[in-house]
Amino acid sequence: MTDTKVYLLDGGSLVLDGFHVFWNKGPGGEVRFPVYSILIEHAEGRFLIDTGYDYDHVMKVLPFEKPQQTKEQTIPGALGLLGLEPKDIDVVFNSHFHFDHCGGNKYLPDAKKICHKTEVPQACKPEPFEILGYSDLSFSAEAAEARGLADQLLPGTTPANSTFEGVEGDFELAKGIKLFFTPGHSIGHYSLLVEFGSRKPILFTIDAAYTEQSLDTLNQASFHIDPVAGVRSMERVKQLAQDHEADLMFSHDMDNFKTYKTGTQFYG
Fold this sequence. Notes:
alpha/beta; Metallo-beta-lactamase, Chain A; six-stranded mixed β-sheet; five-stranded mixed β-sheet; 8 helices; about 20% helix; about 25% strand; globular
């Protein structure tokens, strides 16, 4: 692995009301949106950014989000399309721990895991309005035990194989893989910039901006901890894209997602 390649692992889709996608603005009505993870093949290893949602968890706890997910849209299934297995992933970086970004962590017990240093403590003791966001605790024995939800853990899950290296501020995960601190949606949220040798960089907003319209209008989703910080982070994302002359990719924008390369296709 010498040339950086980015694969988008299609993780299925969910539904929210338009007033949640576009907070206090709408219009209302069901909006089906994609969920995906980002696999980076790099000279320094394989890096997986986020791991999507777990279908059974959503059906149990958030069935109103109407999950649609095939076997090929789970982490093992999506990796299998590329001839890979979960054990082939070297590092998992979670942008934050809302249920649709960490549901596949449980399949990756041996990968090194990294997140913002405040995210695991927040999952252990979320604000009352964050309970559904931080509802899938299968990624962390520490969080599951703190919340009395150890039944969510796979047999054999221990703090040792679900321990995270905590980071803060902006940092470089590997050469050309840059994480920018964009809080607001969650306390420790990150957005991602990937640089290539032969094409423009890609800036993944992650959940700092669900959709292109969100970023254009600075209208964040209703699921957030700090709306003012969220607006500042969207402004920062806009500036980062300009400074790095980067293409933007959005986390939950179905219209844009239909144009993205997925499956065995890649960016590089």
